[in-house]
Write a structure and sequence with these properties.
about 100 residues, mainly beta, 4-stranded antiparallel sheet
């Protein structure tokens, strides 16, 4: 079983073939194939490390674009009559890893 470490959206993800994951939003339509910069690839026999990357070895297919549940950010200061409530929906792209 091959595993790889990819970098996208300022984060690193450990992935394997057939895995679904939610990443930071990427402008792509459902069904479109994306290539990710690969930092490491490993299987039972060998290990490949990039300096800094190995190239675009991992391909993923976009499944959907969506939004996470609302996160409430509340600011409050005691005895000053200060209270602020702000909500935020983070956008994501759901991707299936097709090929390593």
């Amino acid at each position: 079983m091959k595993i790889a470490v990819i970098k996208t959206g300022g984060k690193q993800y450990k992935v394997s073939q057939g895995q679904n994951l939610k990443i930071e939003k990427i402008e792509a339509k459902p069904g479109e194939v994306l290539k990710f910069p690969t930092l490491m690839v490993a299987d039972e026999a060998k290990l490949g490390l990039g300096r800094p990357t190995l190239g675009d070895l991992v391909e993923g297919r976009v499944i959907e674009q969506g939004r996470y549940k609302k996160v409430s950010v509340i600011k409050f200061k005691n005895k000053i009559r200060y209270k602020r409530n702000v909500g935020h929906h983070q956008l994501f792209t759901k991707v299936e890893i097709v090929k390593i």
